[in-house]
Amino acid sequence: MHWEFAIMNWIAEHLHSALLDQVMPVLTGFGDKGAVWILLGLILLCLPRERSKGIQVILALGFSFLLSNLLLKNLVARVRPFDVVPGIELLIQAPHDFSFPSGHTSASFAATMVLMMNHWKGRYYALGLAILIAFSRLYLYVHYPTDVLAGAFVGVGAGYLSVKVYSLLHKKGIGLTKGR
User: Fold this and answer.
1) What is the mean pLDDT of the chain?
2) Chain centroid to CA 88
3) How many angstroms separate the CA atoms of 19 and 62, rounded?
4) Using alpha carbons only, what angle is made at residue 103 by residues 97 and 107, rounded to the nearest 5 degrees?
5) pLDDT single digits (tens) 115-158
6) Does 97 score more than 60 pLDDT?
7) Is omega for the bond preceding 101 within 30 degrees of 0, making it cis?
């Protein structure tokens, strides 16, 4: 864990600024409870030509939540870094769940993986936002680097699984959309 604190402390010492102290809580807020990704999934659901992507995004977020928030967080039960290092002043309200893996990162990468696999026109913007949300968790001292990396891996896996499950159901004639 020493190297993880070294990374987080380097960020705190070299990257913190008045501007980023305002921006990072907003960025992390986009990922709260997967809000921005749920909203994007719902918007896609409302667009007939994008409905399949919306279904896959919502499915990926479900897989991400089950794997990250319900299974791994409780299985690993890792204490958050601000609880380990005394005197850390958070810029956001302290999360009350466990640290590993980052649910914000997992949801972000789950949705983004679906969009990447479907070649959605805004996929690179989604990827940029996912990376920024993941970084915000380190900047705000609420996750360790391995929490964020694990969240990204779980999210990519959840997104991949979502696309494959949707494709399998679609091939069997089970689905809500015509075409892909």
Assistant:
1) 94
2) 24
3) 34
4) 155
5) 999 999 999 999 999 999 999 999 999 999 999 999 999 999 99
6) yes
7) yes
What percent of the chain has a predicted confidence (pLDDT) above 90?
Answer: 89
In this prediction the pTM is: 0.92
Read off the pLDDT of each residue in 47-61 and give the average, rounded to a whole number: 96
Q: Domain extents for the chain? A: 18-79+96-171
Least Cα distance to 118 among 35, 70, 46, 53 occurs for 53
String of b and e for 30-63 (b: at least 16 CB within 10 Å)? bbeebebbeebbeebbeeeebbbbbbbbbbbbeb
For the record, the structure tokens of 95 come out as 């999360």
The owner of tokens 């990072």 is: 24
| Spacing of C-alpha 85 from chain mean position | 24
Nearest to 74 by CA among 105, 102, 100: 100
Could you give the count of Cα atoms lying within 13 Å of 70 in the half-sphere of its Cβ? Answer: 7
